[in-house]
Amino acid sequence: MVKDVRERSTDLASQEMLALAARAGYEMAWDRFEKQLPQCGFGESGLCCRNCNMGPCRIDPFGEGPTKGVCGATADIMVARNLLRMIASGAAAHSDHGRDVANTFKLMTEGKAPSYHVKDRAKMERLMKEYGVESQIALAEAIMAEFGKQEGPIQFTRRAPPKRLALWQKLGIEPRGIDREIVEIMHRIHMGVDNDYVHLILHGLRASLADGWGGSMIATELQDVMFGTPKPIRTEANLGVLRSDQVNIIIHGHEPLLSEMIVAAAEDPELQELAKKHGSEGINLAGICCTGNEVLMRNGIPSVGNFLQQELAIATGAVEAMIVDVQCVMPALGALVNCYHTKFISTSPKAKFPGATHMEFHEEQAYETAKEIVKMAVMNYPNRNQTKVHIPTIKSEAIVGFSVEAIVEALGGTLDPLLDAIKSGAIRGIGAVVGCNNPKIKQDYGHITMVRELIKNNVLVVTTGCGAIACAKEGLLLPEAANLAGDGLKSVCKALGIPPVLHMGSCVDISRILVAASAIANALGVDISDLPAAGAAPEWMSEKAVSIGAYVVASGIYTVLGTVPPVLGSSEVANLLTSGAASVVGGSFAVEPEPEQAAKLMIGHIESKRKKLGM
Ligand code: XCC
Ligand code: SF4
Question: Which of 95, 134, 252, 328 is spaced 20 to 30 Å from 287 by Cα?
Answer without folding.
Answer: 95
